[in-house]
Write a structure and sequence with these properties.
elongated; mainly alpha; 0% strand; 4 helices
Length: 95
Amino acid sequence: MFYTSAMIHTTIGSFQALNAAAYVGVVNIFLLSIFIYSLAPASGGHLNPFITFCTVTTGLTGFSRGVLYIIGQTAGAALAGGLIRGSYGKDLTKL
């Protein structure tokens, strides 16, 4: 999702749009909805490691399954960050 969002932001930004952040925000709402809808049967619908941690502490998700979800979610975010850095280079992705 992060990689797709970055690509959309770059595309909209290349047209010199004044409200690029607003367009990207709206697109992220739709992307997040699509990802939750498609991944809900496998992951319970939560894509955020903090939400997963909360479901583990409240007992809604088992401990071992929760740990695997957190590892997968964190690894996926790191992979997306690496793809963005690799696609755009260090100059455009400085913190």
